[in-house]
User: Which sequence fits this backbone?
């Protein structure tokens, strides 16, 4: 099957679901149902992004608290590089620690 065949199948399923929704809920309740589903999806995405941000902040503070003063620079750079690679920031070898931290924070704010 081609991609367009799958797309047609999904469109048919959506049409069937809308028809069943009209039968069960009526034409007045169906828009309210879709609005509540949309709100739930937005709240889920917000919670997912917030949990990623909180996890990253927790990892940063945990890693910073475990560092000793003599090897702090090497380990912090290693951790920054590790976080950058997890977030998909590839050009991290030629920039300073501060710039890398800014890029990491920017990527986290974007929600990766």
Assistant:
């Amino acid at each position: 099957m081609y991609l367009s065949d799958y797309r047609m199948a999904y469109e048919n399923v959506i049409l069937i679901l809308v028809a069943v929704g009209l039968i069960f809920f009526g034409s007045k309740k169906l828009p309210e149902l879709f609005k509540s589903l949309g709100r739930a999806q937005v709240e889920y995405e917000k919670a997912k992004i917030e949990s990623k941000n909180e996890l990253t902040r927790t990892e940063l503070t945990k890693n910073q608290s475990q560092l000793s003063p003599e090897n702090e620079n090497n380990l912090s750079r290693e951790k920054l590089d590790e976080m950058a690679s997890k977030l998909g920031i590839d050009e991290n070898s030629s920039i300073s620690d501060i710039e890398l931290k800014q890029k990491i924070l920017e990527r986290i704010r974007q929600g990766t």
User: Anything to note?
Assistant: The mean pLDDT is 76.
